[in-house]
Amino acid sequence: MRQYLLTSLGGCLFFICSWFCLWVIAFYFVGDPALAILLFPFSLRLGITLHTAARYWLFIYIAEWGLIVLLAKVLNDLPWWPILIASGLSWPLLWCLRRYYYGDQWRQLLVMAVSIISTATINVVVVIVFSSINLISVSPAGMIFLISITGGLMLVPTCYLLWSFLFSRSWIPLTVALISRPLELRYRDLCLYALLFIANIFLQINLPEELSRFAPFCLAIPIIVFAFRHGWQGALLGTLLNSIALIAARSDVNNMEITDLLLSLSAQSLTGILLGLGIQRQRDLNRKLSAELGKNHVLSRQLIKTEESVRRDVARELHDEIGQNITAIRMQASILKRVETTPVTQQCASTIEQLSLNVYDTAKGLLSRLRPKTLDDLGLAKAVEQVVCDLKLEDKGVDVAMAWGHSQQPLCDTTSVTLYRICQEALNNIAKYSHATEVIIELNIDQKIRLQIEDNGIGFKAEDAFKGFGLRGIRERVEVLGGQCSIISNHYDESQHLVLPKQVTGTTLVIVLPLA
Asked: Which of 12, 29, 281, 474 has CB atoms 3.0–4.6 Å from 59's, for a disulfide?
């Protein structure tokens, strides 16, 4: 109970000070004490009650009613009875809306919009009723509705931002480690925002008379900048700064100009919030998409890792089983040759031995394609050199130069196998189709893995780049691992002896992979 009373009294004092300060600002702007109460103070009470537990509402309303009565005693022309009744009628409305004020931002913003419009409607109805029985003489209903909407659009979302920042965030305890952490200030952002604010005030005050009507359009610039950087919260902050600039620059205006300014404030507040909501929604979707892509990349890498593990196990088992069986078959054929000396038996034994050797050679080639044994035994560089020897590129007049960048970070098995298969496929294509005489293979490992294979062959047409299964398989495997694959080829037309599109031939394959 004691904590409840202390919290209530402290909150009540804060509300009284804020309410009165906002009334002074509104009175300075509109010049009417009753309209000033409906502009900012009512909106402040609306925003605070929406974000405060219902057990504290009594202190908030009592503080507001006491301030209205005190102002009525100081200002004899203040129609305080309608204002008190409008304030009291908002209590049951907010009580009903508070039950639906939960969930995501979209739901909460919708409840805020309904509460602002409903409160403005209550203010208009109360004023119309009292003016119809000639108890008060106040401004037109349209002006009251516009003032209520303008104040609500400016202050209710601001109260939501403060409540979200103070009570919806996980605060880190103040420890020695946190104190020793250096404070980072974004000087560029602060300077940019300050310059925009100063430029707005300058434009509102110093533009020539013939251009003064175009000054409010300049207010869209900070709103767009803030919305792009910080979503709808930033857009709302931009609208608040613009509102301060407008109120400071247009204090000595007549009723017609006040209506224009209120419309401008409402329009820019609503536009800024909607623009910021759209940008923030797009950012949230991009963030979720990036997270899902990251999960997909991790899952794809794990699938490839599992696939290579299965390939390695299957290759090892097949190698052991086939090797033993082929050795046994050859031994039996040799025994048969020594035991039976007839020509038919000798011929059959030789055929069996030759067929077993063919099976072994075929199985060895398939096992190499299934899982390169040299990659496990010798590493990536030696394995690629073995591919060059197997393809007999030197005998075909192809000079292969390899440059392997040194790095302290070892490559994982999935990445090593992927790079090996890319080199294997590229060298195979060069041996078959390129008519090249020089090949350069470069591998650099820094923040990312970059593999470049370049030859001086005849190249191929751009539209034929991914028609075959080899290059298409390379691209798909690289993209699955979250990398990028690019091919630059300049086709040489032998029939016309032309180089298209420029006088340089050859093909360059560039692979960029992230470090696992």
From this structure: 12
Looking at the predicted structure, is the pLDDT value of residue 501 above 60?
no
Strand order in the sheet with 448-455: 399-404, 438-445, 448-455, 506-514, 484-493, 498-500
Sequence-separated contacts (24+) of 457-460 with Cβ below 8 Å: 457/430, 457/433, 457/505, 457/506, 457/507, 458/434, 458/491, 458/492, 458/494, 458/505, 459/434, 459/489, 459/490, 459/491, 459/492, 459/505, 459/506, 459/507, 460/433, 460/489, 460/491, 460/507
* Ordered DSSP codes for 217-262: GGGHHHHHHHHHHHHHHHHHHHHHHHHHHHHHH--S--HHHHHHHH
Q: Please, are residues 142 and 159 in contact by the beta-carbon 8 Å criterion? A: no
Q: What is the pLDDT of residues 349-391, one digit of tens each?
A: 888 888 888 887 888 777 777 777 777 777 888 888 888 888 8
- 399-404 and 438-445: which strand pairing? parallel
pLDDT at 510 over 60: yes
First-to-last alpha carbon distance for the chain, in angstroms, is: 57
Q: What is the mean pLDDT of the chain?
A: 79
pTM: 0.60
CA nearest neighbour of 381 among 443, 439, 428: 443
**Are residues 23 and 37 in contact, defined by beta-carbon separation less than 8 angstroms?**
yes
Residues 514/408, Cβ–Cβ less than 8 Å: no
Report pLDDT for 375. Answer: 78
Inter-residue contact 22 to 41 (CB < 8 Å)? yes
As a whole number of angstroms, the distance between CA 90 and CA 83 comes to: 11
Rounded to 5 degrees, what are φ and ψ at 499? -105, 120
pLDDT in tens, 8-18: 888 889 899 99
Determine contact, residues 499/440, Cβ cutoff 8 Å: no
What is the amino acid identity at position 210? E
